[in-house]
């Protein structure tokens, strides 16, 4: 038990966005993000995020700034989050599916002075009572302020102790509480586990969870820091075990992150499809709930006979 639990590794100091930029330099043509048939290469992702970051800098974002992000599921989501980091700020994820009162509370409590939003969600701005900051609509790479900016890297001066993002607790025992997470904390997690698990450029990760849930940090940045591809799961498939299983097979996902209860439903869908052996899954990583034998028994039975 002692030797198994000895997981200490040497981790170099770093910044989340710089590790992604390093991947863009090493493998610019590799696919970084995919969503419903649309793809971004690492070069595309890096340049688009750099252009948006310059726009954010012009609007006052810098080291120590917190920026609200209210966008939907698409290939644009990783770009926006990465751009906030590149501009020196920390992102405050505001899932547009959340109730208005929760969004308004998180935006006010965080003190974010800028809100990034997609056009389809601007109708909800009237629900965010009390927000007096600036709103910037991020839709479209080719036009407006973003399209004319340089895609070259920025020099901002972020250090590992600066905030990368703020995740709010569920509030089930009271009001939600914001947790500030530094770049160094994220890099320790990602770099400390990459060698242990052997994650690399051949891996395909699914971004299943809401980006306002901390599991998403591992799903998104784990893929991009290791040079893999992240598949943004469409909203409808997060509610359909059968649809999710089909996507895992079609996209060749190798790294799946799930709560045990949801995985049990996916496993049932896999068994019912008769296609358990078609999946490329190499890792299923659990979190958010206690893992019990009942959650995985059917999966292992099916895999053992596949």
TrEMBL record:
Xref: InterPro entries: AMP-binding, AMP-binding_CS, AMP-dep_synth/lig_dom
One BP annotation, GO: amino acid activation for nonribosomal peptide biosynthetic process
GO cellular component terms given for this protein: cytosol
Annotated Pfam families: AMP-binding
Residues of the AMP-dependent synthetase/ligase domain: 21-304
GO function term, MF aspect, one: phosphopantetheine binding
PANTHER family recorded: NONRIBOSOMAL PEPTIDE SYNTHETASE, PLIPASTATIN SYNTHASE SUBUNIT B
Protein name: AMP-binding protein
């Amino acid at each position: 038990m002692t030797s198994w639990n000895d997981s200490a590794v040497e981790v170099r100091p770093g910044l989340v966005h710089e590790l992604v930029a390093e991947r863009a330099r090493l493998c610019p043509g590799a696919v970084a993000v995919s969503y419903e048939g649309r793809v971004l290469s690492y070069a595309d992702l890096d340049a688009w995020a750099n252009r948006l970051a310059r726009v954010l800098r012009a609007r006052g974002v810098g080291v120590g700034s917190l920026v609200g992000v209210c966008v939907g599921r698409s290939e644009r989501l990783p770009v926006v989050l990465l751009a906030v980091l590149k501009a020196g700020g920390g992102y405050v994820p505001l899932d547009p599916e959340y109730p208005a009162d929760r969004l308004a509370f998180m935006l006010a409590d965080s003190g974010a002075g800028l809100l990034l939003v997609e056009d389809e969600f601007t109708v909800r701005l009237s629900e965010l009572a009390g927000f007096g900051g600036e709103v910037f609509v991020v839709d479209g790479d080719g036009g407006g302020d973003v399209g004319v900016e340089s895609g070259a890297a920025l020099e901002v001066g972020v250090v590992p102790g600066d905030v990368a993002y703020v995740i709010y607790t569920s509030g089930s025992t009271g009001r939600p509480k914001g947790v500030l997470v530094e770049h160094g904390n994220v890099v320790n997690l990602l770099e400390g586990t990459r060698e242990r698990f052997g994650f690399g450029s051949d891996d395909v990760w699914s971004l299943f969870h809401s980006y306002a849930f901390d599991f998403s940090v591992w799903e998104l940045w784990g893929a991009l820091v290791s040079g893999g591809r992240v598949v943004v799961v469409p909203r409808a498939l997060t509610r359909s075990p059968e649809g999710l299983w089909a996507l895992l097979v079609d996209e060749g996902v190798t790294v799946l992150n799930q709560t045990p209860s949801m995985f049990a439903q996916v496993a049932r869908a896999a068994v019912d499809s008769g296609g358990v052996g078609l999946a490329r899954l190499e890792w299923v990583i659990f979190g958010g709930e206690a893992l019990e034998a009942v959650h995985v028994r059917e999966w292992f039975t099916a895999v053992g006979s596949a």
